[in-house]
């Protein structure tokens, strides 16, 4: 009988003391095709493993047909899912049932008043029926320090941009 491969244990403890980034998972999504307007592309988004494969369209509010998803919806889904996972983890660590937790992410695309470029704003709303507000708030703060999307929002994310050969 073959044993299932178990992923590494992830914790909120500071159990990593390396001096460089240590990736646990990597994925690639490629966007191609479509028209662009407002500095935004439509087209098709496909993950390297083929699990994600969808049409991107400009939202109707920006002059598009609104007949597909857009980067802000994808970012909101990723942010909400990531924060939900972090909050569920810290809730379980406190022997609380995370089953009723839901996280809504609202992402606004707009102009940066500082330089006129484009900017995103994210608002998260956590619904946790029956939770003690004091306990929930403390766990939300822990989740904020754990969630990579939240950390990206307040700390920044290292990135590179290169031209393919």
What's this, in brief?
By secondary structure, this protein is an alpha+beta fold. The protein is 27% helix and 22% strand.
Report on this structure.
The protein is 27% helix and 22% strand. The chain is α+β, with helices and mostly antiparallel strands. The protein folds into two domains: 25-69, Single Sheet (N-terminal domain of TfIIb), CATH 2.20.25; 70-156, 2-Layer Sandwich (GMP Synthetase, Chain A, domain 3), CATH 3.30.300. Strands 1-4-5 form a three-stranded antiparallel sheet, with no helix packed on it. It is globular, with a radius of gyration of 19 Å.
Kindly list the characteristics that best describe this protein:
GMP Synthetase, Chain A, domain 3; 165 residues; 7 strands; N-terminal domain of TfIIb; globular
How many DSSP E strands?
Answer: 7
Alpha-beta classification: alpha+beta
Low-confidence stretches: none
Give me the CATH architecture of the largest domain, please: 2-Layer Sandwich
Portion of residues in helices?
A: 25-40%
The biggest sheet amounts to: 3 strands, antiparallel
Overall mean pLDDT: 87
- The helix tally amounts to 3
Question: Whole-Å distance between the termini?
Answer: 46 Å
Helix/strand order = EEEEEHEEHH
Instruction: Supply the CATH superfamily name of the largest domain.
Output: K homology (KH) domain
């Amino acid at each position: 009988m073959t044993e299932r491969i178990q992923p590494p244990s992830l914790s909120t403890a500071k159990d990593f003391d390396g001096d460089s980034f240590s990736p646990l998972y990597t994925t690639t999504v490629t966007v191609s095709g479509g028209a662009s307007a407002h500095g935004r592309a439509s087209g098709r988004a496909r993950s390297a493993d083929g699990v994600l494969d969808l049409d991107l369209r400009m939202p109707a509010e920006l002059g598009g047909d609104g007949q597909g998803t857009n980067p802000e919806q994808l970012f909101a889904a990723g942010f909400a899912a990531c924060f939900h996972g972090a909050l569920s983890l810290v809730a379980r660590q406190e022997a609380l049932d995370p089953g009723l937790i839901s996280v809504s992410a609202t992402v606004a695309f707009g102009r940066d008043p500082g330089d006129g470029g484009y900017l995103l704003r994210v608002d998260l709303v956590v619904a946790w029926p029956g939770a003690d507000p004091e306990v929930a708030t403390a766990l939300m703060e822990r989740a904020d320090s754990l969630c990579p999307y939240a950390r990206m929002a307040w700390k920044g994310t290292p990135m590179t941009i290169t031209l393919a050969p």
